[in-house]
């Protein structure tokens, strides 16, 4: 009974966090980003009317900085909550995120998909997205590798995702005992909430494989 209460509390906390993250992401995209773009276009207009070379050079620098800031805000918004998740589905959202991931971390992710993509609920899509996101960031931080593979397998009732790297790997049992990889627990908890599971295998010098299994039939 006590375990059930803990599980319900964890579910509530994660869902509340996701709602807040979504709100912040939308505010960044639709509010702050739009305001910055309005400032950018206004600065470009003012720049065209400046005759003094020094002031024109300064305005150009400010314009460049503002443009870069707009891009960073947009990228942050995508990381927090990909708008494509609802409109184009989980696979397109992850492909879009992986482009950002590659440009940020320099680790090449090969993306594959087999079978016909099925529609997932927003909760399931977001759980899969966050789990894959956590796995990819762990690769960038700990795997010491230049590439990895993310494979989708769509079956009639199940979605399976394998994320594999050939990096340095780690002692899985030791990591569990010392609680040094809290991200693993977070991935398992997210998938548990939507009825899925995460399996992880690794060994020193053998790379790491993360398998995500999610029932997709309601």
Descriptive terms for the model:
about 220 residues, Heat Shock Protein 90, 2 domains, 5-stranded mixed β-sheet, 5 strands, elongated, transferase
Give the biggest beta sheet. 5 strands, mixed
User: Tell me, what is the CATH class of the largest domain?
Assistant: Alpha Beta
CATH T-level fold name of the largest domain: Heat Shock Protein 90
Count of separate structural domains: 2
Uncertain parts: none
CATH architecture label of the largest domain: 2-Layer Sandwich
- Mean pLDDT, rounded to whole units? 80
Helix content: 55-70%
User: What is the global morphology?
Assistant: elongated
Enzyme class: transferase
Catalytic activity: ATP + protein L-histidine = ADP + protein N-phospho-L-histidine
Organism: Aquibacillus rhizosphaerae
Protein name: histidine kinase
Helices and strands in order, then pairings?
Layout: H1 2-48, H2 53-80, H3 84-87, H4 90-105, E1 108-114, H5 122-143, E2 147-154, E3 158-165, H6 172-178, H7 182-193, E4 197-202, E5 208-215
Parallel strand pairs: 1-2
Antiparallel strand pairs: 2-3, 3-5, 4-5
